[in-house]
Amino acid sequence: MGFFGTLRMAGLLAASLLVSAVEPAPAPPQGPSPAASSITAPLPAVALSHRAEHLFKALSKGDAEGVRAAQLEVEALRRTYSTLDVAPLVEAMALWAREQGMAGRPSLGLDGLQAVERWAPDHPTLLGARITLMRRQGVKGWLWSFPDLLRLTRQRIDRPEYRWLWLVQHLGMIRLTATLLLWGWALTMGLRYRNVLRHLWEEPLEHKGVSPLAAAALGALMLAGPVILGLDPMVAAILWLFLLAPFLHAAEVRVTAFVLLLQLVHPALAAFEPWAAREPQPSLLLLQLQPQVQPVQPAALHLLPPSDQAFLTGWNQLQNQDWKAAESTFQELVGRIPEQTAVLNNLAVAKFQQGDVAGAEKTFDAALAAGTKMEVLLNQSILAFNRLDTVLGASKRDDAQAAGPEAYTLLIALNDAQKDARTYPIPLPDTPERVQALVEATGGSKGSDIRFTDRAFLVALLLPVLGLLAFLARVRASVRMAYPTQCIRCGEPFHTTDSPDVEVCQKCHHLFVLRDGLHAENRRKKLDEVADHQQNTRWIHKTLIVLLPGCDLAFLGDTREGLIEFLPFCLAVGMILATGRSVRYPGEILADPTSTWLAVGAALVGLFYLRSWLKLILRRA
């Protein structure tokens, strides 16, 4: 981040030097021409960014007066360019503040953000940088950053071009939760019924004379086949559950159906992804009101009507204070475009700035007759106060405030502490036709539409559905016959009709319940089988306790309790892996701060592991 900030500031400095390098030779004593002053004027974005350097120096020295002087410089510059957007200044300050935080001076970085907060209190870059710096101050900083986090989150949700990206990012935890739940459940069931699962292919191969080693290799190849073929690992998990369907208890069948249905969140979230990838549409208002780091290329405007292009030329002339050229441009637009109120208002602004107060007042009256606009009423108020007509000035000011309260507040804040009178131009508004012309001129698109016929989407949708249907069909077919199961004592596969106990084979029933019918040698052999199986079961159980909290309970048959413990664990892991990374939203230079869900998920994962590991301690005690 330090390198990025240095690179950006170096680029801005180079741009400023380039602008200075192309300045013409000194003008004759009578003064430079209007055209020359428009050419040599620095770009608003560059000028705003370089005002941040004065703030950096004053903040580093702790000079409060220097900070105030730098803020006044910014105020004067904003009035010069009539800009309400201070994005370059805020971005430069955010980069500098983050560098201070990385250097161990978060308080200094927060002071810098406070110095520019007056111009953009809810700027996303400023909010994100402040959250990051406050978190560097420890747990207290995390708590104090929540109000800013809520404001930033509200901005992401309120803006349509960012809403889907925010949803996809934060709902990704559910997608990962579903995946982990499927993999963990398939692994647990595979370990619980490991012997009877092998019985499915080893018994037929044994009758054909295949060696046990070859049968084991073929079984491993079959279970890992989908992954080896390059398919999604979810296919392998569904295959395992399909093979185990006849052996599962009723509670395990219900949980498996729930887990497979939960996989439908994958296509549901995939449907949101094209919306999240959409770039914000271009806007004429942003081109006029937002300082541009580089001048707008004519090729980006060539599909606009000639009258609109002329209006934008006149707007740039007003911003560059080339009043004579602006007057000529807007005079030619009178009667040529529908936005006559804006044309006449801007023509009056150019006249007023050249000292033609009477002509400006007459043109403002014509603009108001063409349509009521807050800027026109405010300009008339300024002219009335300028000739000391306080009654008319106050009346026009109140009318302007009623016509557009928010825009009025912004313009008054822009003119704060201004000593000389000024007037305000009106930008060309956005229309669907103008926005479409900008989209086509820049070669962009409005974004990809959701296509439900895409192969990836269909696979994600049909795979869990088909897997669930096949699983339920196999379960239903197994209910009508005596299916093989696994003895909980020795692990040997047997048919349910072979023993009065559906969970214990006939040999174990005679050995441990009836205690008859077994020869001493067979009894000793059976006890060794039981001991080996129970030893392996204990090791698997302990491993699941350590690695997968909740799966240990499902492994022993406590299905409901195991799901209740394993599901929140998967959700907590999803919080860390799916929402922990930062996301940079389109049009912004800095990524958002790390999601709070990462810290919440880490705390929950630690809590779940501690709770699970206590089972080992209590069992040992």
From TrEMBL:
Database matches in Gene3D superfamilies: Tetratricopeptide repeat domain
Keyword Membrane: yes
Entry's transmembrane regions: 164-188, 209-231, 237-262, 456-475, 563-583, 595-614
Keywords, in A-Z order: Membrane, Signal, Transmembrane, Transmembrane helix
Signal peptide coordinates: 1-21
Highest rank taxon of the organism: Bacteria
Protein name: Tetratricopeptide repeat protein
Species of the source: Geothrix limicola
